[in-house]
Give the backbone structure.
Amino acid sequence: MDAIVLAGGLGQRLQSAIVDLPKPMAPVNGRPFLSYLLDYLNDSPATRCILATGHMHEKIASYYGDRYKDLNIAYSVEAEPLGTGGGLKQAFTHVTSPDVFVVNGDTYFEVDLRKLLQAHSEKGADLTIALKPMSDISRYGVVKVEACHIKSFEEKKEVAEGFINGGVYLARRSLFDGFNLPEKFSFEETFLKQVVAKLQVRAYFSDTYFIDIGIPQDYERAQRELRRYE
């Protein structure tokens, strides 16, 4: 089974903390953050990982080559920035399994991928999204759910508590088929908001460890908290 890591981020908000590195390669306790994600995928049903890269892709490829532990590594390289949607759609052309895991390259969300796969298969979903219950979620958009069906994605706003999209997905390889999409688009803002009304999009709830290193404060927090995964 394949997995995709969205590893093309520029890391503009982390420029004060990382220099001359793509965001997924940001060092955490002397290791690239991406290595923590690959360790996570190595202990999952995935046997092959497609790294969707762009900015400074050469540094990622030269570091990991074509194998990491038990994972075979392939690359989907953006010649120019395509957005999370365009980059993911391009990476899907490299997928060989009927379904594929997708994880964000700047987020560690410790979802049990075996249970996610079981839930996805049992419900016959086109897309299953792992949701994290959180309080004080003004930094994130809110996901509205009814009986495990995802109904809508709301904009970032002051909300006391709710469910956020944790950046871990399980999708059919045919997910993008039949949609008229531009070359460059956002997976979260453009695609997900239109797909909920047209496909079976299910929620998988996981109240497990979550961190997004996209801002310097949380990047510094990762230095402390991710030590337990070394």
